[in-house]
Predict the structure.
Amino acid sequence: MAENITNLRISMVTSGDPRFPAENMLDGTTKTFWASTGLFPQEFIVSLPAYYVIKKVTIWSMKVAGWTVSRSTGDAPFDYDEMYREDIEDAGDQSLQVTSFSISSSDAKREYSAKNVKFTIRKGHSDFTAVHRVAITGEIDASRESERKSKKERDLAVDEDELSVGRAVRVQ
């Protein structure tokens, strides 16, 4: 069953103003925001607490003229595949733009499983844009999480074996 994913974190942002930090996008309210500074494109990466099959993404913003949303399937935030692209009409001076897209069950299997989601503001209706909130809904990808945990356990076992060999060498 799809759930609103919690424990998200911002792992990268291309610009920032200390008065409007990127973490504001994940605080659950539209009263705070992250403000972009400078030229376009602007990007930020949201890291998920586990592998999730993404079902829906919603973004509350101001003055954004074009979004691209991509996902990465690896633990590290690299090698992104585009999931969504849209040009957005200006909502007026102080109006929030709400951009939302869903992925149908038939499309949402492994191909939209992600650990990191990259949001790209391709262009703006102003020199500066604001992102007030980001929400991602999905289901834990049990097969990917199982693979990741097995790999961690294998890596841990190898490290322990290396430590045991290292101790044996030191004793001699």
